[in-house]
Amino acid sequence: MNISALQQARASYQPKLPHALKGALKVVEGAPTESAADQAEIKKLFPNTYGLPSIHFEPIEGTWPSATVNCGVILSGGQAPGGHNVIAGLFDGLKKLNPQNRLYGFLLGPGGLVDHKYIEITRDMVDEYRNTGGFDIIGSGRTKLETKEQFDKGLEILKKLDIKALVIIGGDDSNTNACVLAEYYQSINAGVQVIGCPKTIDGDLKNSEIETSFGFDTATKVYSEVIGNIERDCNSAKKYWHFIKLMGRSASHVTLECALQTQPNVTLIGEEVEAKNQTLDDIVTYVASVVAERASRGLNYGTVLVPEGLIEFIPAVKRLIANLNDMLAVKKDEFEMIQRSKRLTYIAINLKPENAALFLSLPDEVASQLALDRDPHGNVQVSLIETEQLIADMVAVKLAEWKKEGKYDGKFAIQHHFFGYEGRCAAPSNFDADYCYSLGSTASMLIAAGKTGYMASVKNTTAPADEWIAGGIPITMMLNLEKRSGKMKPVIKKALVELNGAPFKEFEKHRKEWEKETAFIYPGPIQYFGPSEICDRSTKTLQLEHQKKK
Ligand code: FBP
Q1: How confident is the model at residue 377 (pLDDT cuts 50, 70, 90)?
Q2: Atom number in ligand 1 closest to CA 204
Q3: Pocket flag, ligand 1, residue 202 (CB < 6 Å)
Q4: Which helix (H) or strand (E) holds 170?
Q5: CA–centroid distance for 405 within its chain
Q6: What separation in Å is there between the alpha carbon of 249 and the centre of ligand 1?
Q7: What are the tens digits of pLDDT across the range 430-463?
């Protein structure tokens, strides 16, 4: 295989582990837990896995004997840097517990379990992928695991391979599925434990017990490097306004973190747009006013960050999407009979009048994306909507109007960019390499401890890795009821940007200054070799959140 010099050097990097995971350990149980909301309903839906205690591991002297166990692993959803290290940590942990233990990988996501597509993961394979980006060791996919048929089909192959535990590495949707699967296998005494791992570059799978999802650290560092490079170009050429859309489908954490790292002129935060009940025109007017103010001082350039989920946060669009979801759930069969070219008209006729008006005012591509092209979990595929271009074009129109009215006299030349796929498979930062390896190792210990329906958790992550606290959190603890396809379903509560949280407050404190001044910061590339304070530092989000706790 052809590998780069960096990959070669990185292969020998030994990820740092929390003290408790280095030798024998004991399980310390906390108090019983409750779900995030809707406790009575969730308890009823998860009678076998509800209310379990959160646990953490503490080191002990001696060894921890463990019977032989075969395990399966699935990578689910979008790629995130460090996935290979979760598998490496899991593999090494299992082999440390008992060299006879075996690990099977299901191919191309949860679909591999249902379709019985798998490989055995060997030491040679793991060694080839240590500390590398991507999910290519077994691939990933977005098949939704939700039906009894799928669970039973999966159980057939688990039984055949004598697999007693399954680790699902995924975001909120995939871990919701892991929770349902754990409950089902427990209810039929299938003898299969299910463990989840928190993955997503979007950073929206976090709570009091899960400090961050893996991949967020590396992805935001990669995007911040490139945003910094653009800002430097912007400050050198002094002729363009750069509109940059960043991944983060349902939350603006990626955009906020990149803003804290690079200090652009304008940063739009979806959660704030929703809280302030802003319209698309409000957003456009705000951006145009920053452009006009800088132009009045001869500064016809700047940088704007746009979260990819922005459109869904605009309250009127949110109401439109809710109406679309309910209407399409009820009229599913009729809708499928309609020719594709006539579907937008059909939808407009069947929406509430106030939503239909907005729907018809959107460019066709945006309307189709909102209405037609959902992923298997029902999510709008916001990565396909060119929001940055839409906003830039609308700002241009607004500035042209202001020019006619004599309110603006500048130049407005646009460049637009979308950073998402560029960072999702990057070589993991030290933080993600260490964090992921620890999560995988933790998953192996949860399996050895006989747990099911738990998510691997590693806490205290702004301290040196040796002081990190490893353990497990019952997934039911993160659930609440939300409307999906017209019905209330138990799902993991997404963590959105908190407007009274320390990261947003820090941004808010500086926003006015960054709008006016050219206060850009150029963070440069991720450093893999060098002083710990540069190579091991976590995100600003995590640092600020932890500072607030202290
Ligand atoms: P996950 O939630 O599965 O981690 O994926 C998040 C994400 O990277 C989003 O930021 C983006 O909108 C989406 O995946 C893109 O999905 P796809 O890979 O299907 O294009």
Answers
A1: low
A2: 2
A3: yes
A4: strand 163-170
A5: 44
A6: 7
A7: 999 999 999 999 999 999 999 999 999 999 999 9
- C-alpha–C-alpha distance, residues 470 and 444, integer Å: 11
For the CA of 79, the nearest atom of ligand 1: 4
CA 459 remoteness from chain centre: 18
Residue 385 burial by CB count (10 A; 0-12/13-18/19+): exposed, middle or buried?
buried
Report the C-alpha gap between 123 and 234 in whole angstroms. 47
The residue whose C-alpha atom lies closest to atom 8 belonging to ligand 1 is 78
CA distance 135 to 492: 23
Helices 540-549, 502-516: axis angle to 10 degrees equals: 130
Rounded to 5°, the CA angle 455-453-83 comes to 35
Ligand 1: does its nearest atom lie under 6 Å from the Cβ of 247? Answer: yes
CA of 497 to the centre of ligand 1 (A): 18
Structure tokens given for 81? 């840097």
The closest-lying atom of ligand 1 relative to the alpha carbon of residue 383 is: 12
Give the pLDDT score at 548. 63
Identify the band that residue 322 occupies on the pLDDT scale cut at 50, 70 and 90. Answer: confident
Active site residues: 202
Nearest to 429 by CA among 297, 308, 282, 527: 527
What is the Å distance from ligand 1's center to 422 Cα?
A: 12
Tell me what the pLDDT averaged over the chain comes to. 94
User: What does pTM read for this prediction?
Assistant: 0.94
pLDDT at position 173 over 70: yes
Q: From residue 512, how far is each of 139, 244, 293 by CA, in Å?
A: 44, 19, 12
Q: For residue 389, how far is its CA from the centre of ligand 1 (angstroms)?
A: 20
Give the residue among 465, 421, 438, 428 at the shortest CA–CA distance from 129: 428
State if residue 201 touches ligand 1 by the CB under 6 angstroms criterion: yes
Residue the block writes with tokens 């598998």: 87
> Does any ligand 1 atom lie closer than 6 A to the CB of residue 382?
yes
Band of pLDDT at residue 550, cut at 50, 70 and 90:
low
Task: Give pLDDT, residue 243.
Answer: 98
- Assess whether the C-beta atom of 78 lies below 6 angstroms from ligand 1: yes
Cα distance between residue 383 and residue 420, in whole Å: 8
Range with the poorest average pLDDT among 53-67, 230-244, 280-294, 407-421: 53-67
Q: Are strands 241-246 and 414-419 parallel, antiparallel or unpaired?
A: parallel
Please provide the DSSP assignment of 191-238 as one string: --EEEEEEB-TT--S--SS----BTHHHHHHHHHHHHHHHHHHHHHH-
Kind of pairing between the strands at 469-474 and 53-59: antiparallel
What Å distances lie between residue 78 and 25, 258, 317, 374, CA to CA? 33, 20, 25, 15
Q: In this predicted model, what pLDDT tens digit does every residue of 129-139 receive, in sequence order?
A: 999 999 999 99
CA of 281 from ligand 1 middle (Å) equals: 27
Q: Does the C-beta of 81 come closer than 6 Å to ligand 1?
A: no
Give the integer Cα–Cα distance in Å for 450 and 471.
13
Tell me if 200 CB under 6 Å of ligand 1: yes
